[in-house]
Specification:
- It contains 17 helices and 22 strands.
- By secondary structure, it is α/β, with parallel strands linked by helices.
- Among the domains are: 64 residues, no CATH class; 165 residues, Aldolase class I (TIM Barrel, Alpha-Beta Barrel); 86 residues, Arc Repressor Mutant, subunit A.
- A hairpin with an 8-residue loop joins strand 17 and strand 18.
- The two termini are 51 Å apart.
- The site of iron/sulfur cluster has 10 residues, from helix 4.
């Protein structure tokens, strides 16, 4: 209504209707009667006849693709023709964006409170696993690039069993990126790496289980640390962020998180990012329940000459009008008000800095059967080398699996070991900074030697522009 110069709008997924629609518009112009337009398409005549309502949350009808398997492969031939004729041809290492699913299978069960990614189409739809694998192979051959960037919100669970074996068997591996649910298991990370999925974006989002519960993430701090460890072990690069600013979070939780961060310098860090409120997220549609008074993010006012009310109907990002720290980033001025968060922000900065040092920190171990030798080059290391035997070795092995502490104590006391000895051995491993206690679990931090180097930034499956025209693969981790 506010943009009368726009003739037609497709609400939702236009893949199958856009061709016939354009043909119809070319032949009939602006005056196609609403009844002749496909579901989800609005035209000038709707301004007079009125817009239809639907049962979606924002009452806007949406065109939805039910069967992803019906969608054609993207045609990038004009892009590659232009690229090959370009002066930059030898510097651009193109990736192939591909889509295998829409919606989110986790969000269908437990919509993450901050997420508005799927609009009104959370229902998960995916291409069959075998079709997905064959399409990756075909596109790679067609365009001569092994880089595949899946644009999906979340990897389909059956791809692990049904798509990856085909890719693992390829003589020349593809280089694949997927967004994944963070609850992957160790053997699943191994499978991904073996199939060429060497870059992932898991929804880690926090290293505090209470914050993760607030966002209904369905994972825990212990599991997130384990995932970072398995990815480093298997040479899988991880893109992730530590989100903060959730309604109901306590600064004390961040104060407890801060001492954990220096222990993780051998794992991959993610930046600390302030939560933003998105349209279609639970925080948006149940704002009141979360004590939020949302208004359109202030930057929109500089773009659209609309009233606050019209902006609220249209924009994607919102701010809490009662938050005195709106605008995004944690400022030095907020440090006094939130000392815990301030400590985490500093801890993340130090972690990122350590990650970009010429030589990466490492914490790794080898087991000879009766002794584990641990090498530790982290800045926080108590010793450069630890020799761990007997009861402490048993604890270190169990902690590698993130064992619940009560279960481990029961197992060990069944071997006639006194509780006091177990207590002392656990305390010793924690004091040596080889394990941490998280969510009532003991989590081992060391990788097994040998481990696989993670791919360099130049290997990003979405493509890479070589500014210096340096040979690929010369960059460090
Ligand atoms: S954040 Fe990710 S897992 Fe959560 S609902 Fe959104 S897409 Fe799904």
């Amino acid at each position: 209504m506010r943009f009368p110069w726009v003739d037609y709008v497709v609400s939702g997924e236009a893949d199958l209707l856009i061709g016939p629609l354009c043909w119809d518009i070319l032949n009939r112009g602006r005056d196609i009667p609403p009844a002749d337009l496909p579901f989800g398409v609005f035209g000038p005549a709707h301004r007079e006849a009125g817009y239809p309502a639907a049962s979606t949350r924002d009452l806007v009808p949406r065109a939805v693709i039910e069967n992803m398997g019906d969608l054609p492969l993207p045609d990038f031939s004009d892009y590659f023709a232009e690229l090959n004729a370009s002066l930059y041809a030898d510097r651009i290492h193109a990736g192939l964006p591909m889509e295998f699913s829409r919606g989110c299978w986790w969000g269908e069960r437990s919509h993450c409170t901050f997420c508005g990614l799927n609009g009104g189409s959370m229902t998960y739809r995916q291409k069959p696993a075998r079709q997905a694998a064959e399409e990756m192979i075909e596109m790679s051959a067609r365009y001569g690039s092994s880089r595949i960037e899946a644009v999906d919100n979340i990897l389909a669970t059956d791809y692990l069993k049904k798509a990856l074996p085909r890719l693992t068997a390829l003589p020349e591996k593809l280089a694949i990126f997927f967004e994944v649910k963070a609850n992957l298991k160790r053997h699943e990370v191994e499978k991904l790496a073996a199939a060429g999925v060497r870059w992932i974006q898991p929804g880690i989002e926090s290293l505090d289980t209470r914050v993760l519960k607030l966002m209904r993430k369905g994972t825990s701090s212990a599991h997130n640390v384990q995932l970072l460890k398995w990815c480093r072990q298997n040479g899988v690069r991880v893109s992730w962020s530590l989100l903060w600013g959730f309604p109901g979070e306590s600064d004390a939780w961040y104060a407890e998180m801060a001492p954990l961060l220096p222990l993780l310098h051998h794992l991959q860090p993610g930046p600390a990012v302030r939560l933003r409120y998105q349209r279609y997220s639970p925080y948006h549609y149940t704002a009141e329940k979360h004590g939020l008074k949302l208004r359109p993010a202030v930057s929109y006012r500089y773009v659209y000459p609309l009233s606050e009310r019209d902006l609220a109907d249209q924009v994607y990002y919102f701010e809490d009008s009662e938050d005195d720290d709106v605008g995004g980033h944690f400022a030095a001025g907020s440090a006094n008000r939130r000392p815990g968060l301030s400590a985490v922000a500093k801890g993340i900065d130090a972690w990122l800095k350590a990650w970009y040092e010429p030589k990466l920190s490492m914490l790794s171990m080898r087991d000879s059967g009766d002794e584990i030798i641990v090498e530790d080059t982290r800045a926080i290391a108590v010793e450069r080398e630890h020799r761990v035997r007997g009861l402490a070795r048993e604890i270190l092995l169990a902690a590698d699996e993130g064992s619940p502490e009560t279960r481990l104590r029961e197992q060990l006391s069944g071997t006639n070991v006194m509780q006091a000895e177990i207590e002392a051995a656990i305390a010793d491993m924690i004091a040596r900074k080889l394990i941490v206690r998280l969510d009532a679990r003991l989590v081992g931090l060391a990788l097994w030697h040998p481990y696989t180097p993670i791919p360099p930034m130049t290997a990003f499956p979405g493509g890479y522009f070589d500014r210096r025209a340096a040979p690929l693969g010369t960059s460090r981790e």
